[in-house]
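Exam revision sheet. Question 4 asks you to relate a sequence to its structure. Input first:
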Amino acid sequence: MDRTRTARWRLPWVVPLLALAAFGCQTVRTPEEKIAASNLPRELEKTSMPEYVVEPPDLIRIEVLEALPGRPITGERLVRPDGKVSLDFYGEIYVAGLTIPEIKEKVIIHLRQFLTDEALGLIELNPETLEYEKIPPRESNRVFVDIASYNSKVYYIQGDVIQPGRLVLTGNETVLDAINYAGGLLPTAAPQNIRLVRPAPPGACCTQVLPVNLAAIVNAGDTTTNYQLMPGDRIVVYRDPIVRTSVFLNRLAEPFFTVVSGIQFYSFAARSLQFLNQPINNTTSGTSSNSTGTSLLNPAGVR
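Answer key, structure tokens:
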């Protein structure tokens, strides 16, 4: 009797605990009214990215018009994991963390060991004074540096999408673009529970967690939460609570199902062995009785 009362007393607490364990702790939504009043870049209100900083594994194009004979400098150069690019015969230079004008200046200064200032475009003859004038390295018209492939600035999309992973950022993507690039949502996804997590830049206080109203973006054309993506952004698509609860309960029940399946298999195997042995015993006993009967009917020495 006491055990029954205890079980009844505990039962109302079991369901909430299971639900809490299944759903987990979710980040509190930021009100969309505040987002609408903010200056966050979004669709139709995009902002220009800051000047591009080269990092591995970007591809940069370096071209020098007047290099040494048989030693041209042209084509694409991969920024290696150590932050350097190779200039073949002319050595290598460190470019990670630099902008394109800074890389151009560094390339020209490095090549002064091999080429003249005139070949590098650092001096120019003034036709009026007939004197040579110095040209800043960044303004040289003999050396060209540009980005061939933007590979280092990325964003991430995780959760219940068809193709989660890391995608390269070109500076124009929005949340809707990212979901489409990932192949869309899985049937188990919760469209009403999507977050954009934006890491805090160095020196900032905290990370931004922004809600995404996918239904409003797609069905109503509302761009309030269709944010412009920045380098390092994380889009998280959460699973539907019903599906999460089902998975949680299945995990809890799986050990019991394993034990029950083992017992059933053992019982079936035991019964199968008994069934296979039964005809053999009957045949053996029948043979023995027949032999006894024959011996009684035909005693030894009687024909």
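Marking note for examiners. The radius of gyration is 38 Å.
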